[in-house]
Amino acid sequence: MSTLNAVVLAAFGVMFLALPEFSLELFGVETYTATIFVARFFGAALALAGMVLWMAKDLGDARAAKTLTIMLLAGSVIGFILTLVGMVGVDVIRANGWILLVIHIIFALGYGYMLSGVTIVTKTQQQRQY
Hints:
elongated, mainly alpha, 0% strand
């Protein structure tokens, strides 16, 4: 899950960094000099987060991995709420906001599932246990 999250973060980061006008227009955000400049900073932050997550995906320490999962779950929930506010409350995200909502929900559900402790065991694994 964190590998997929790292790739999505890096992809959005590169998109906002290299093509800020296109990225803003994709979500129906007005493009001014200031918003383009902030979009580039946002892209750099997303790309950095993707790289950090890519490096941290193979943590051997269970406590560190659980802490990272909790932080990623919180980030997904906060991102979902901010996207809703941007779409409904302040009408900043005017187009394709549903893409961001779906991404945040998928990651929130995935990280929530990982934290629930539920494990999927195949029938052959069950037979080996007995």
